[in-house]
Amino acid sequence: MKKLFGFVLSFVLLFSLLSCQKKSGSEKASSEGKITVLATIFPAYDWAKNLTVGCDSVYVDLLLKDGVDMHSFQPSAADIVKISTADIFIYVGGESDAWVENALKNAGNEKMIIINLMDKLKGFIKQEELVEGMQHDEHEHEEHGHEEHDDHDEEIENDEHVWLSLNNAIASSNEIARALMEKDEAHSSIYMANLVFYVDKLAALKQEYANSFGEKTIIVCDRYPFLYLTDEFGIKYYAAFNGCSAESEASFDTIAFLSVKLHELKSPSVFVTESSDKKIAKTVISSAGIKDCKIIALDSMQSTTLKQAQKGKNYYDVMRANLEALK
């Protein structure tokens, strides 16, 4: 399979070079002769954009640019070519990025600086939780049911949503700045100045979060990719599914549990992710019999598109909006 992958990649590279790497005229013009930073996810893309303000020698690009969830993303041939020609490549490094290993192995770009965020954040990685009332991922359970195990313990997975910690955002920005200075020493002072400014900005926002919450419990009628965010500030939660769950239909027991908790806590609101259809939330509110309970979206930034970023959406503003939503 690996040999086949290598052959296909070689063919694609040749074909793509003959067709100017299939870039649009505007994209080619904007990146030609520049250091290319390619990030798989929007937060890393935006961190890199902030670190390169005022520097025309760098082109920052986003791989998952059409709002595709990283949990279901599979690279196209053009994506693989784009990765192989990047000077700096930034990816999360979790289970959803299993495809990256082969793509990098066959890229043949020994000068590329690779930033695996989860690897760089070792010691700060959280494991997925199954909190009280949370529904098991039946799809995942069925897949594991066909595998042999030495014991009866379920495999514990790391939570991939590392960017939702402001501490992790600061640490990751430092790593990206270090890579930029290594690739482009001539503009090191610009990258350093941008890093100091941006880190100070994130640190101030982190302090606002810390000052905003005492004891707080939220109810999330959806997947829960916000573990890094809420753990950082001591916010407790109940949720329908964990962050990487493939489930979308809540069971009767899950609905009943969340409804009871909503009634007990008398919460004025329940939360969903930015891409939610709100069906579970509406059912929970109805079952709890609480009038005027609001449904508020928290943005995990998993489905942010390049067009949204180009129109001004950015990591800092999203995290500030999440703060206001949680208050």
The CATH C-level class name of the largest domain: Alpha Beta
Mean pLDDT: 88
What is the molecular shape? globular
Radius of gyration: 21 Å
Query: What do we call the CATH homologous superfamily of the largest domain?
Result: Nitrogenase molybdenum iron protein domain
CA(first)-CA(last) distance: 51 Å
Q: Helix/strand/pairing class, anyone?
A: alpha/beta
Level of helix content? Answer: 40-55%
Largest sheet, in brief, is: 4 strands, parallel
> In terms of per-residue confidence, which ranges show pLDDT below 50 for 5 or more consecutive residues?
1-25, 139-153
Our count of helices gives: 14
Instruction: Tell me the strand order in the biggest sheet.
Output: 2-1-3-4
Q: Would you list the SSEs in sequence order as H and E?
A: HHEHEHEHEHHHHEHEHEHEHH
Instruction: Provide the number of structural domains.
Output: 2
For this structure, the CATH topology of the largest domain is Rossmann fold
Number of strands: 8
Strand fraction band? Answer: 5-15%
What is the CATH-assigned architecture of the largest domain? 3-Layer(aba) Sandwich
